[in-house]
Design goal:
- The chain is built from twelve helices and no strands.
- The chain is mainly alpha-helical and 223 residues long.
- Helix 4 runs parallel beside helix 6 and helix 6 runs antiparallel to helix 7.
- The protein is globular.
- The two termini are 21 Å apart.
Length: 223
Amino acid sequence: MCLKCKRGRNDLKKFDGSSSFYDEAIKLIDLNDFDGAIKSIKRNIDSLEDQDEIALAYLNCGFLNDKLGDNISAIDDFSKSIFFETKIDIIQRSKDISYSGRSNSRYKNGDFQGAIDDKRKAKKIRLLEIDKSKGIDDIKIDYKNILLGTFLKIDLEPKYNALIKCSEMRKSKYDLISDYKKVISDKKIKDVIKKLEFISESKYKIGDYKASIRAIRRAEKYF
Protein backbone atom coordinates (compact mmCIF):
# COMPACT_ATOMS: atom_id res chain seq x y z
CA MET A 1 0.00 0.00 0.00
CA CYS A 2 1.35 3.48 -0.86
CA LEU A 3 2.42 5.87 1.90
CA LYS A 4 -0.42 8.28 1.16
CA CYS A 5 -3.00 5.49 1.40
CA LYS A 6 -1.53 4.29 4.70
CA ARG A 7 -1.62 7.80 6.05
CA GLY A 8 -5.22 8.21 4.88
CA ARG A 9 -6.33 4.99 6.54
CA ASN A 10 -4.56 6.01 9.75
CA ASP A 11 -6.49 9.28 9.68
CA LEU A 12 -9.69 7.29 9.41
CA LYS A 13 -8.72 5.34 12.52
CA LYS A 14 -8.30 8.42 14.71
CA PHE A 15 -10.87 8.30 17.50
CA ASP A 16 -13.22 11.16 18.20
CA GLY A 17 -14.92 11.00 21.60
CA SER A 18 -18.08 12.59 20.24
CA SER A 19 -18.72 9.45 18.18
CA SER A 20 -18.41 7.01 21.10
CA PHE A 21 -22.19 6.49 21.19
CA TYR A 22 -21.85 4.68 17.89
CA ASP A 23 -20.55 1.65 19.78
CA GLU A 24 -24.07 1.11 21.09
CA ALA A 25 -25.58 1.72 17.66
CA ILE A 26 -23.22 -0.82 16.07
CA LYS A 27 -24.27 -3.50 18.56
CA LEU A 28 -27.92 -2.83 17.73
CA ILE A 29 -27.22 -2.93 13.98
CA ASP A 30 -25.50 -6.31 14.43
CA LEU A 31 -28.74 -7.50 16.07
CA ASN A 32 -30.73 -6.11 13.11
CA ASP A 33 -32.40 -3.69 15.53
CA PHE A 34 -32.29 -0.81 13.08
CA ASP A 35 -35.04 1.14 14.84
CA GLY A 36 -33.11 0.89 18.10
CA ALA A 37 -29.94 2.06 16.37
CA ILE A 38 -31.74 5.10 14.93
CA LYS A 39 -33.05 6.01 18.39
CA SER A 40 -29.57 5.59 19.86
CA ILE A 41 -28.02 7.92 17.29
CA LYS A 42 -30.78 10.55 17.40
CA ARG A 43 -30.69 10.69 21.20
CA ASN A 44 -27.18 12.05 20.83
CA ILE A 45 -27.56 14.43 17.89
CA ASP A 46 -28.38 17.41 20.11
CA SER A 47 -25.10 16.87 21.98
CA LEU A 48 -23.06 17.22 18.77
CA GLU A 49 -21.57 20.60 17.96
CA ASP A 50 -19.51 19.79 14.88
CA GLN A 51 -21.56 20.05 11.67
CA ASP A 52 -19.65 17.17 10.11
CA GLU A 53 -20.67 14.95 13.04
CA ILE A 54 -24.29 16.07 12.78
CA ALA A 55 -24.33 15.41 9.02
CA LEU A 56 -22.85 11.95 9.55
CA ALA A 57 -25.42 11.12 12.25
CA TYR A 58 -28.29 11.95 9.90
CA LEU A 59 -26.55 10.08 7.08
CA ASN A 60 -26.42 6.92 9.19
CA CYS A 61 -30.07 7.32 10.17
CA GLY A 62 -31.00 7.74 6.52
CA PHE A 63 -29.50 4.39 5.58
CA LEU A 64 -31.10 2.69 8.59
CA ASN A 65 -34.55 4.07 7.75
CA ASP A 66 -34.01 2.89 4.18
CA LYS A 67 -33.37 -0.62 5.51
CA LEU A 68 -36.62 -0.40 7.47
CA GLY A 69 -38.49 0.59 4.31
CA ASP A 70 -39.40 3.99 5.76
CA ASN A 71 -38.54 5.88 2.61
CA ILE A 72 -40.03 9.22 3.71
CA SER A 73 -37.99 9.30 6.93
CA ALA A 74 -34.89 8.17 5.01
CA ILE A 75 -35.30 10.98 2.47
CA ASP A 76 -35.72 13.48 5.30
CA ASP A 77 -32.57 12.25 7.07
CA PHE A 78 -30.50 12.30 3.88
CA SER A 79 -31.77 15.81 3.13
CA LYS A 80 -30.69 17.00 6.59
CA SER A 81 -27.28 15.43 6.04
CA ILE A 82 -26.97 17.23 2.70
CA PHE A 83 -28.00 20.52 4.35
CA PHE A 84 -25.19 20.33 6.91
CA GLU A 85 -22.66 19.02 4.39
CA THR A 86 -23.15 22.01 2.09
CA LYS A 87 -21.78 24.25 4.85
CA ILE A 88 -18.49 22.42 5.40
CA ASP A 89 -15.50 20.73 3.80
CA ILE A 90 -15.27 17.01 4.55
CA ILE A 91 -11.97 15.16 4.54
CA GLN A 92 -12.77 11.55 5.38
CA ARG A 93 -15.85 10.83 3.29
CA SER A 94 -17.35 11.99 0.03
CA LYS A 95 -20.44 14.14 -0.16
CA ASP A 96 -21.68 11.82 -2.90
CA ILE A 97 -22.84 9.30 -0.27
CA SER A 98 -25.74 11.39 1.03
CA TYR A 99 -26.98 12.15 -2.50
CA SER A 100 -26.73 8.49 -3.57
CA GLY A 101 -28.48 7.41 -0.39
CA ARG A 102 -31.34 9.83 -1.01
CA SER A 103 -31.47 8.74 -4.64
CA ASN A 104 -32.05 5.14 -3.56
CA SER A 105 -34.83 6.11 -1.16
CA ARG A 106 -36.48 8.38 -3.72
CA TYR A 107 -36.34 5.55 -6.27
CA LYS A 108 -38.06 3.17 -3.84
CA ASN A 109 -40.66 5.88 -3.16
CA GLY A 110 -41.44 6.21 -6.86
CA ASP A 111 -39.79 9.63 -7.36
CA PHE A 112 -37.73 8.67 -10.40
CA GLN A 113 -36.86 12.22 -11.45
CA GLY A 114 -35.66 13.05 -7.94
CA ALA A 115 -33.71 9.80 -7.87
CA ILE A 116 -31.83 10.40 -11.11
CA ASP A 117 -31.21 14.08 -10.32
CA ASP A 118 -29.63 13.08 -7.00
CA LYS A 119 -27.53 10.41 -8.69
CA ARG A 120 -26.28 12.88 -11.27
CA LYS A 121 -25.40 15.37 -8.52
CA ALA A 122 -23.54 12.62 -6.66
CA LYS A 123 -21.43 11.83 -9.72
CA LYS A 124 -20.64 15.51 -10.33
CA ILE A 125 -19.66 16.02 -6.68
CA ARG A 126 -17.33 13.02 -6.70
CA LEU A 127 -15.60 14.11 -9.90
CA LEU A 128 -15.06 17.60 -8.46
CA GLU A 129 -13.65 16.11 -5.25
CA ILE A 130 -11.22 13.91 -7.15
CA ASP A 131 -10.14 16.81 -9.36
CA LYS A 132 -9.60 19.02 -6.30
CA SER A 133 -7.56 16.35 -4.55
CA LYS A 134 -5.34 15.82 -7.62
CA GLY A 135 -5.75 12.04 -7.64
CA ILE A 136 -5.10 11.17 -3.98
CA ASP A 137 -8.80 10.97 -3.13
CA ASP A 138 -8.98 7.18 -3.49
CA ILE A 139 -8.50 6.90 0.30
CA LYS A 140 -11.78 8.71 0.99
CA ILE A 141 -14.94 6.72 1.74
CA ASP A 142 -17.31 7.25 -1.16
CA TYR A 143 -20.43 5.51 -2.42
CA LYS A 144 -18.44 3.26 -4.74
CA ASN A 145 -16.28 2.14 -1.80
CA ILE A 146 -19.48 1.26 0.03
CA LEU A 147 -20.79 -0.83 -2.88
CA LEU A 148 -17.43 -2.59 -3.24
CA GLY A 149 -16.89 -3.12 0.49
CA THR A 150 -13.44 -1.51 0.20
CA PHE A 151 -13.22 -0.54 3.84
CA LEU A 152 -13.31 -3.13 6.63
CA LYS A 153 -14.28 -2.34 10.21
CA ILE A 154 -10.64 -2.66 11.30
CA ASP A 155 -9.86 0.36 9.12
CA LEU A 156 -12.38 2.65 10.73
CA GLU A 157 -13.32 4.46 13.90
CA PRO A 158 -16.80 3.66 15.32
CA LYS A 159 -18.73 6.41 13.51
CA TYR A 160 -17.47 5.20 10.10
CA ASN A 161 -17.78 1.56 11.04
CA ALA A 162 -21.43 2.39 11.72
CA LEU A 163 -21.71 4.07 8.31
CA ILE A 164 -20.40 0.97 6.53
CA LYS A 165 -22.81 -1.24 8.47
CA CYS A 166 -25.76 1.13 7.96
CA SER A 167 -25.19 1.48 4.23
CA GLU A 168 -24.38 -2.17 3.49
CA MET A 169 -26.46 -3.40 0.57
CA ARG A 170 -28.23 -6.73 0.79
CA LYS A 171 -27.39 -8.80 -2.27
CA SER A 172 -29.69 -11.39 -3.70
CA LYS A 173 -28.52 -14.98 -3.53
CA TYR A 174 -29.53 -15.33 -7.17
CA ASP A 175 -27.93 -12.16 -8.53
CA LEU A 176 -27.31 -12.92 -12.22
CA ILE A 177 -25.19 -9.79 -12.70
CA SER A 178 -22.91 -10.85 -9.86
CA ASP A 179 -22.46 -14.25 -11.51
CA TYR A 180 -21.89 -12.66 -14.93
CA LYS A 181 -19.15 -10.38 -13.53
CA LYS A 182 -17.16 -13.45 -12.50
CA VAL A 183 -16.79 -14.70 -16.08
CA ILE A 184 -16.11 -11.48 -18.02
CA SER A 185 -12.97 -9.35 -18.23
CA ASP A 186 -12.42 -6.02 -16.51
CA LYS A 187 -12.52 -4.37 -19.93
CA LYS A 188 -15.91 -5.91 -20.65
CA ILE A 189 -17.21 -4.71 -17.28
CA LYS A 190 -16.05 -1.16 -18.06
CA ASP A 191 -17.70 -1.36 -21.49
CA VAL A 192 -21.00 -2.48 -19.95
CA ILE A 193 -20.92 0.33 -17.38
CA LYS A 194 -20.12 2.89 -20.09
CA LYS A 195 -22.99 1.62 -22.25
CA LEU A 196 -25.47 1.76 -19.37
CA GLU A 197 -24.33 5.27 -18.47
CA PHE A 198 -24.87 6.29 -22.11
CA ILE A 199 -28.37 4.80 -22.04
CA SER A 200 -29.11 6.65 -18.81
CA GLU A 201 -27.99 9.96 -20.30
CA SER A 202 -30.04 9.38 -23.46
CA LYS A 203 -33.17 8.53 -21.48
CA TYR A 204 -32.66 11.54 -19.20
CA LYS A 205 -32.54 13.91 -22.17
CA ILE A 206 -35.97 12.75 -23.39
CA GLY A 207 -37.48 12.90 -19.92
CA ASP A 208 -37.70 9.15 -19.31
CA TYR A 209 -36.42 9.45 -15.75
CA LYS A 210 -37.47 5.97 -14.70
CA ALA A 211 -35.42 4.32 -17.45
CA SER A 212 -32.55 6.72 -16.79
CA ILE A 213 -32.22 5.89 -13.09
CA ARG A 214 -32.73 2.19 -13.71
CA ALA A 215 -29.82 2.16 -16.15
CA ILE A 216 -27.56 3.85 -13.60
CA ARG A 217 -28.63 1.50 -10.82
CA ARG A 218 -27.90 -1.43 -13.11
CA ALA A 219 -24.48 0.03 -13.99
CA GLU A 220 -23.61 0.27 -10.29
CA LYS A 221 -24.12 -3.48 -9.91
CA TYR A 222 -21.07 -3.95 -12.15
CA PHE A 223 -18.76 -2.04 -9.78
